[in-house]
């Protein structure tokens, strides 16, 4: 089974404003409302690709209810812990540029943190647990590391998609996969990652730190996959970016959708990049048809070391 855990889900309110002017009254030309948060996006893309998962995390209030109803409607299993404060709303403003305002999120009690850890006790060896997105301010940035340690002890494949200290602290617990984008990778090493060579250099440092598989996504500039046996480079297909929210999550979902079916790493990587681009080229998250179509344009090359 694949579990996704979103500690800080959101409603993503996507507002298109033709000529946004700061400090003025602006009116939208189009709006969309989606359930958001990285683990939830991964569960949704997995479902689109025909793979079941169970979404975990914390939800509260009318916004939390919207997320649960949406997932139920899409026949996605979920087992969220209810909290008293409302789930946040993240604003995604589309104008000349993409601007995002992500909320802080509700506070999570120690008791509810323990409740989540107990759910992990009931998972089985060989399961996958995705830990994705920011950690709400009420939870220590050690929390993902604590979960990664539990996963390591229980033979659960931890997949981590977060940034900064919360990510760094998980590395020594041998997560199965991490997927930083090139900015997040640079941030980990207090540098800028500007090229594929840089991404390979710093990606190898993540392997040395204990991570089993690394994908570095570089938006429109391709992606890199690394593990102890191989380094793969991918192009990305050409297209018009409509809404890149959830594109990184789609890379993770596309990759996992193939790994769970025991496909080889190169196929899984290709599928991940196809899913990322298919989402970037869509208003909402990608569909299976879009992924299958874009996949044919993606060439995976092995780097000889
Ligand atoms: N301009 C683009 N052209 C094609 N694909 C893109 C583009 N921008 C993003 N993508 C797709 O989305 C994926 C994730 O994007 P990226 O910005 O690297 O990650 P994140 O969304 O985590 O910040 C990329 O690997 C790629 O598949
Ligand atoms: O938890 P964070 O870091 O605030 O991110 C939450 C946001 O990330 C998203 O999951 C999108 O993530 P990506 O664009 O990185 O794939 C949105 O749905 C959500 O608003």
UniProtKB/TrEMBL annotation:
- The reply on keyword NADP is no
Task: Give the InterPro entries listed for this entry.
Answer: 1-PFruKinase, Carboh/pur_kinase_PfkB_CS, PfkB_dom, Ribokinase-like, Tagatose/fructose_Pkinase
Give the matching Gene3D superfamilies. 3.40.1190.20
Q: What reaction does this catalyse?
A: beta-D-fructose 1-phosphate + ATP = beta-D-fructose 1,6-bisphosphate + ADP + H(+); D-tagatofuranose 6-phosphate + ATP = D-tagatofuranose 1,6-bisphosphate + ADP + H(+)
Q: Which UniProt keywords apply?
A: ATP-binding, Kinase, Lactose metabolism, Nucleotide-binding, Transferase
Q: Does the keyword Nucleotide-binding apply?
A: yes
The pathway it acts in is:
Carbohydrate metabolism; D-tagatose 6-phosphate degradation; D-glyceraldehyde 3-phosphate and glycerone phosphate from D-tagatose 6-phosphate: step 1/2
Q: What Enzyme Commission number(s) appear in the record?
A: 2.7.1.144
Q: Which residues form the Carbohydrate kinase PfkB domain?
A: 11-283
Q: Pfam families in the record, alphabetically?
A: PfkB (PF00294)
Q: SUPFAM superfamilies recorded for this chain?
A: Ribokinase-like
Molecular function in Gene Ontology: 1-phosphofructokinase activity
Q: What does this protein do?
A: Catalyzes the ATP-dependent phosphorylation of fructose-l-phosphate to fructose-l,6-bisphosphate.
Please report which protein family the annotation says this sequence is part of.
Answer: Belongs to the carbohydrate kinase pfkB family.
The protein here is known as Tagatose-6-phosphate kinase
- Gene it is expressed from: pfkB
